[in-house]
């Protein structure tokens, strides 16, 4: 068995593979590098065969999305540790060593992530993970270095390694056996926030998650689905509710879910007022889909627990103007 496998899920990412895969190969000599292809329609496969013949390729029969795509691909991977790595990430020299060394020495931790910085603005954190992810009492995710759309410059303020609630799916190292034991990524999510759901379930099993800022990577972001896409808005709002329905204790859920619905409706109206009508309607479509899938999601409530952060980030951000993670301490 390989100790570490770096698995890149690709869908029409020919340009990203061309740009970033050489550095993955150069800087990850101790790992097996695998590209799992979600039935790309571009020249990704031809590129891999021609320019990267040493890279193992797993061909999936259709585009399963992020969640189910990884689930299917990882059934064909045997390794102690698996890194879920986005195709639009530039890894740095020795990025892998601090992550593997940490899991080697800490059996009570299931997963970890590096510090994620912005590829285009290299002095700033990147939206999808920054220096570790958290979630508030209503299920709104935020990061150490990013709250909503407010992204901080990296001045070393979050270079200490701490326990986090969720690790980014853009670059997530996880123990293979625990990925499988927890049920893997939920395919009903398709894409976006499925890693938060996974990390919540892992912690309900009694394991912990850490950010290791001595490991650093750079993320382009929006490589598969742009932040400007109404479909991404739909997925974020729908999946945010899925997470609560699956993981919150019932006593908390009956109180918090109506509040979350109300706040989502306000967000939808805000989109419309700003002229982003498609994004506003995407929020309502998300709510309709949650109602349609309610019984299915409820049946998935295997492990439940309360998130450790008790505050409401929405109110702190907009009313108290606490827009940096350090302001929340």
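-> sequence recovered:
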């Amino acid at each position: 068995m390989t100790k570490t496998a770096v698995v890149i899920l690709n869908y029409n990412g020919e340009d990203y593979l061309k740009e970033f895969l050489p550095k993955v190969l150069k800087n990850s000599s101790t790992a097996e590098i695998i590209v799992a292809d979600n039935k790309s329609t571009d020249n990704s496969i031809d590129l891999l065969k021609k320019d990267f013949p040493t890279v193992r390729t797993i061909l999936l029969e259709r585009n399963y999305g992020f969640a189910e795509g990884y689930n299917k691909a990882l059934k064909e991977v045997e390794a102690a540790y698996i890194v879920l790595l986005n195709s639009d990430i530039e890894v740095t020299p020795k990025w892998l060593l601090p992550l593997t060394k940490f899991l080697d020495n800490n059996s009570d931790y299931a997963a970890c992530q590096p510090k994620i910085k912005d590829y285009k603005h290299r002095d700033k954190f990147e939206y999808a993970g920054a220096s570790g992810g958290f979630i508030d009492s209503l299920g709104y995710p935020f990061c150490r270095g990013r709250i909503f759309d407010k992204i901080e410059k990296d001045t070393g303020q979050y270079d200490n390694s701490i326990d986090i609630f969720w690790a980014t799916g853009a670059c997530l190292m996880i123990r293979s056996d625990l990925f499988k034991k927890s049920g893997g990524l939920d395919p009903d999510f398709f894409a976006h926030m499925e890693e938060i759901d996974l990390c919540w379930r892992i912690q309900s099993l009694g394991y912990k998650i850490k950010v290791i800022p001595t490991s650093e990577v750079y993320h382009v972001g929006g490589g598969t689905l742009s932040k400007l896409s109404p479909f991404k808005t739909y997925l974020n709002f729908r999946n945010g509710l899925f997470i609560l329905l699956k993981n919150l204790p019932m006593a908390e859920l009956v109180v918090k879910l109506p509040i979350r619905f109300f706040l989502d409706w306000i967000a939808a109206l805000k989109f419309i007022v700003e002229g982003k009508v498609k994004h506003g309607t995407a929020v309502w479509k998300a709510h309709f889909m949650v109602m349609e899938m309610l019984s299915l999601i409820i049946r998935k409530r295997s492990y439940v627990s309360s998130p450790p952060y008790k505050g409401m980030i929405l109110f702190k951000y907009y009313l108290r103007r606490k827009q940096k993670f350090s302001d929340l301490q």
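The CA atoms of residues 115 and 213 lie 5 Å apart.
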